[in-house]
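Fold this sequence, please.
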Amino acid sequence: MRYHGSLTLAGAIYASLEVADGSPFRTFEKEREQQSRAQTSGDVRQIAKATQNALKAFIADLNRFSQSQHVVLALDVVFILPFLWMVSTSLKQSEDVFPYPPSFFPTTFLWQNYPRGWTILPFNTFLINLPIVTSANVIGNLISCSPAVFGFARLRARGRGILFLTLLATLMIPREVTIVPRFLLFSQMGLVNTLCPLILPAWFGYAFFIFLLRQFFMTIPTELDDAARIDGASSLRIFFEIILLLSKPALATVAIFAFIGNWSNLLDPLISIRSQGLYTLALGLNLFRGQNFPQFNLLMAVSIITLIPVLTVFFLSQRLFVQCVTLTGMEGDRALREGRVPGRNGRFSVFSSAFAPHPPPVPLLPQGEKGELERADAPFPSPPLSPLSARGREGIERH
């Protein structure tokens, strides 16, 4: 059995790769199953042939797998190369930025470029202004978009589809077309040279975020809303206690998009702000480039400092991106199957009574002297209805 040790080694390599289902090793898996069946038969020739076929399949699949990994690795290098060039340039001397012949690595690592570049301009003031604008935009987008999305996705109204199509049509309008009208509007309101032009538009909704949240809200089962309404819940209570709690991944994705988009926004502050004390980091970098054009090493050092929050948010929020793509209402389906509805603080709200399994019907005895139906288990009186369930029953009887 000269191939047995090689097949064992191939199995160990395959296990160490930790490839998931649907991997390029399907042929090897099939051949290894046939080799296991041949071992049970006891035929030495069949075992040797099946083992040899399994090894050939493993080598072929491993080549395909390595080629695909090489392609992915090459793409990673292409995308990360500009960032690596920024890091390398930020540690060079000013005369070594564009040497001939070109050199990627610095001859001496000048870590003092980072404090030097940060102190040339008042970047501390710019760093204070930018979180104010960014956090106000994130909160404004979440507060303004969520109720509108609830109306488009969960409420029935005449003309709802036409209004939503009109909203989507605004996405086809280039942003540059609205620059002059917005500047004139804020100029007439006396808000130019303040942070208000950078904050106020987010509190009136953004079409892309509304579209993104609506697609997620549509995947949440409507049976949750119906059961809550039977228990007497209003639309606002359904929105706050059911829809928002099940839409945390989508809301987090909107917050991340708003954060990244406003952190690197240059066009709006460039048009609306004139005082240097109100500049953001993007405007500060633009001013730095104009005043210190030859000093690319200091410019790259400050750019890397401004990128640190964005990179931190991106790496910490990768799980939320994946959840927003993969969940798509699965949490609501799971709650519906398990007979529960998420509530505050990780518990479950009063609406879960509508999803609880109904007890078997209790046989009733004939009417008593008072004309009331008596239960067969009379010694154990039935518990009274909860106030919420009573209100729900009154609402059903009234309608």
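The chain has a mean pLDDT of 76. Residues 4-90 form one domain.
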